[in-house]
Amino acid sequence: MMEHPAWTDRHEAALQEAWKARANAWAPYSGFQVGCALMVPGGGVVAGCNVENASYGLTQCAERCAICAAVAQGNSTFTDIIVVTDLESPSPPCGACRQVLFEFAPEATVWLVGKQPGKTWHKVSDLLPHAFRFEPPAR
């Protein structure tokens, strides 16, 4: 069994950034607003929110928006990922987001927070067992 990771003041600050991002989510079709905050090495936090589109397949999840923003800022590793929704129970990332998170931080801790008190956590690699990894063929 994995040891429960510690929740610190830094996590609390990142949680507040995730809630702020969630408030900016563009979700006119589903009404399901999601915020995400990535904790990057060195103390930074990069947040993102979901952005829906009338052509629903073009919708971007909060996790992928945060990753794109972080990469644009030069961050390609994350220690912790905090995902917030206004559902009673925490909501885990979708399958596409799990694969993208795995690309950058397979051993990062994903914290899930809903309206109810408390948080659940998982390692990215546990959320996506048997994840796809690209390994170029030997030449």
Mean residue pLDDT: 95
Number of helices: 4
Q: Profile the largest sheet.
A: 5 strands, mixed
Number of domains: 1
Percent strand equals 15-25%
Task: Give a structural overview.
The protein has helices at residues 9-23, 62-72, 95-104, 124-127; strands spanning 34-39, 45-49, 80-85, 109-113, 119-123. It has 139 residues and is of the alpha+beta class. The protein has one domain (10-127): Cytidine Deaminase, domain 2 (3-Layer(aba) Sandwich), CATH 3.40.140. A hairpin with a 5-residue loop joins strand 1 (34-39) and strand 2. The radius of gyration is 15 Å and the shape is globular. It starts with 8 loop residues before the first helix and ends in a 12-residue tail after the last helix. The mean pLDDT is 95.
Give me the secondary-structure topology.
Elements: H1 9-23, E1 34-39, E2 45-49, H2 62-72, E3 80-85, H3 95-104, E4 109-113, E5 119-123, H4 124-127
Parallel strand pairs: 3-4
Antiparallel strand pairs: 1-2, 1-3, 4-5
Task: Note the main attributes of this structure.
single chain; 139 residues; alpha+beta; Cytidine Deaminase, domain 2; five-stranded mixed β-sheet; 4 helices
Write a short abstract of this structure.
The chain is α+β, with helices and mostly antiparallel strands and 139 residues long. Helices cover 29% and strands 19% of the residues.
